[in-house]
Write a structure and sequence with these properties.
By secondary structure, the chain is mainly alpha-helical. About 65% of the residues lie in helices and about 5% in strands. The protein is built from 22 helices and 2 strands. Helix 8 runs antiparallel to helix 10, helix 9 packs across helix 20 and helix 10 packs antiparallel against helix 22.
């Protein structure tokens, strides 16, 4: 009797660095194939000066030839150095290392967050992540390690904290409770497209304020439910139950010396916290003063060449935007140093550097990951594939004969799809505004509402595209807190882990947009979804 042998194919689990390298090579090869088939598209943009229509033809840039490979090799170091997450990550990592090594974050977790319900903490993390997108993408870099530390100190798996923070920032990227830099960059294209129908149409900076605030709250609530019901149970707790029992606050102390040491430690920690509180308040006051105009020595971080305050604060040449990451690093360093000095954790400068070195030991692996991610993203952008796909989507929308809610829904889904390949909102809106705004204005849908539709559609898929510059930061932190070194968390596994969050938030966005339009609630001061 012959015995049947069951052959099992061993699953290959590649390191994320390898995956990024393979994606780069695949993109180069695909660019050569598409170029040979003359893959291209023509789309329309608007000249904002005279509202004339400009036809733009984009072809695939072939990188699978002599000149293309020459470009890839010669620009590798430049791509790495100019990659936005690199400098932001290094600066925030230095600040976080001081904050963590001083013991400030542990004290905050044990004395403050330990008394707060887990669901409330998750809501706060997601809410802060959502509103953090008002100023570039620093929420990815600050909130993820803080959330992981808080979850771990609460006895929960830090990977759940990483996902909660990342999803809060990524899937809430189109909204906030304040007016930010995105309005400044999108409004010119919205206005130009609207003036094809009404030459005197005006779009104000506050046009989306009401719907932004409502969306921020709704997304934070839905996100909290998803994390608590689907994400946290999947990863379990940080420690075994028997370990948690040993960590309870109830202690039986027989030795008077131990009791005195404990009281002395608590006194030093409280003193350190007072020092850090005073230091952080002073730093925050200085930061606020630097963005207030027309006071003695104030306004240092404003671009005074701009006419309006919001443009001075969030304009293209804003010192506030460019220097915000450095400001956060200074705040963390000063706060951490104040706590460390007050608690006697830092007795001299050597203590500071040695403690920080321990917290920065994983930096090398992350830098390698960022290097290969930057090559993939810049190579893909160079091919123009994302721009061509966006142009094709614009032409599809332009060819649709019907309008109203069906066209609105199709536009939302297509923008969410194309965001996987062209992740910059401004780059997409240049192409899409001329074909979405005028026809939907004819069906009584306001351009201001359509501008928010772009932001919402982006947020639907913002967290699941490897072409997002900050997706690599998510993968990096997932592997830092991953205890299973034998099975690193790669790109596709990372996407799989957050896919439930993505799908539920996408459905929430769709219901919110359609419901808001049907009900007709104001989206901003004196602005409605209809014209």
């Amino acid at each position: 009797m012959n015995k049947k042998r069951k052959l099992r194919l061993k699953r290959i689990k590649l390191h994320p660095v390898t995956i990024y390298l393979l994606l780069t090579l695949l993109t180069i090869i695909v660019s050569g194939i598409l170029s040979s088939f003359k893959f291209q598209t023509t789309y329309s943009t608007i000249n904002s000066t005279d509202l004339s229509i400009i036809q733009n033809t984009v072809t695939v840039q072939n990188l699978f030839n002599y000149d293309g490979l020459k470009y890839v090799i010669s620009n590798a170091s430049r791509n790495f150095i100019s990659f936005a997450p690199l400098s932001m990550f290094i600066l925030t990592a230095i600040g976080m290392s001081v904050l963590i090594s001083s013991g400030f974050l542990d004290f905050l977790s044990k004395k403050v967050f330990s008394k707060i319900d887990n669901k409330i903490i998750t809501f706060i993390i997601i809410f802060i992540g959502t509103i953090s997108t008002i100023i570039n993408e620093i929420g990815y870099l600050i909130l993820i390690p803080i959330a992981a530390s808080i979850y771990e100190n609460k006895g929960r798996n830090p990977l759940s904290g990483v996902i909660a923070a990342f999803c809060g920032v990524a899937f809430g990227a189109g909204t906030s409770i304040f007016i930010g830099s995105l309005e400044v960059s999108l409004i010119p294209y919205t206005t130009s497209a609207a003036r094809l129908v009404d030459p005197n149409y005006h779009v104000s900076l506050l046009s989306n304020l009401f719907i932004m605030i409502a969306a921020t709250i709704i997304l934070s609530i839905v996100g909290t439910i998803v994390v608590e019901k689907l994400i946290v149970p999947r990863f379990g707790k940080a420690k075994e139950k028997k370990d948690l029992e040993l960590d309870t606050d109830i202690e039986v102390i027989d030795d008077t010396i131990e009791e005195e040491n404990r009281l002395n430690t608590e006194y030093k920690e409280r003193r350190g916290f007072r020092y850090s509180l005073v230091a952080s308040i002073i730093m925050i006051i200085l930061f606020i003063y630097s963005v207030i105009p027309n006071l003695p020595l104030s306004g240092m971080l404003l671009d005074m060449n701009e006419e309006t305050y919001l443009r001075q604060l969030f304009g293209a040449n804003s010192y506030f935007q460019d220097g915000f990451t450095y400001m956060i690093m200074l705040l963390f360093i000063v706060t951490g140093l104040a706590y460390g000095i007050g608690s006697k954790k830092f007795k001299n400068d050597r203590d500071v550097f040695e403690a920080c070195h321990e917290n920065l030991k994983n930096l090398g692996g992350i830098l390698i990951l960022i290097f290969f991610a930057s090559q993939f993203i810049f190579v893909f952008r160079r091919t123009n594939i994302g721009t061509i796909l966006t142009g094709i989507v614009a032409n599809v929308i332009d060819s649709i004969s019907f309008g109203g809610i069906p066209l609105l829904i199709i536009s939302i889904l297509l923008i969410a799809l194309v965001n996987l390949f062209l992740t910059t909102a401004e780059a997409k809106w240049i192409i899409l505004a001329p074909v979405i705004v005028p026809p939907l204005m004819q069906f009584n849908i306001a351009p201001q509402f359509l501008q928010f539709v772009l932001r919402a559609s982006d947020s639907m898929t913002n967290g699941i595209t490897p072409l997002s510059s900050f997706f690599v930061i998510f993968i990096a932190y997932m592997n830092i807190y991953n205890r299973d070194n034998e099975h690193p968390i790669g790109i596709f596994r990372g996407i799989k882990l957050i896919l439930p969050y993505c799908l539920i938030i996408a459905a929430t966005w769709l219901l919110l947009l359609i419901g808001w339009y049907i009900i007709g609630l104001p989206i901003g001061p004196n602005v409605y979804p209809t014209v």
